[in-house]
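Morning!

This is the sequence you dropped in the shared folder:
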Amino acid sequence: MRFIGEISALEKGLAELAGMWEPLDVTVSVSRGFEGLCVTGKGGSYQITYGEKADFFRALALLSGELRRGNDSVEIREERKLKTCGMMLDCSRNAVHTVEAVKRFIRQMALMGMNMLMLSTEDTYEIPEEPYFGYMRGRYTIEELNELDAYAAGFGVELVPCIQTLAHLNAALNIDGGSGELTVHLRAQGGSVLFSKVLQPGRVGQ
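The structure's back. Tokens below.
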């Protein structure tokens, strides 16, 4: 599958998905301008018009599917109904997804036209000043989260961190070797502390 036209913003994602269409000997002309996606063409020459990156990758999946089913003439048009469409991935239940697994989810989501992935993390992310936060829980490092964010952007998927606090901090507050306490500060927009509370094991959520 060969691509021509407005593809500079899509090259990273296309490189990751290259194996999906290697056997397809067709040319695809790419342009932006449609709020959603439009796929047309026949005889080995096709056109994809899209609104945002995730629309393009969904269009590509639809075109690939039609060609693999032996349909030479293709005409598909979809209008995006939701500005944001995605899913939340649970990364806190003692089975934190590896970086490669999250990347696989991102690719699959983009091929479905989804543009947002929420990572639900309770204590599974790195806090440099708190070495026991997420200890032995498969926490993501700062570098790994930055890597995933950049990878998702290549497919038009926004990576959204979801940090659970207070009643969801049982694991973080019950680590042997740590103080067992966590001080939470509620700050105003200017930075001044409005409220401080020391959380202790057995009293989380009270």
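Headline: The CA atoms of residues 84 and 177 lie 42 Å apart.

More detail when I'm at my desk.
O.
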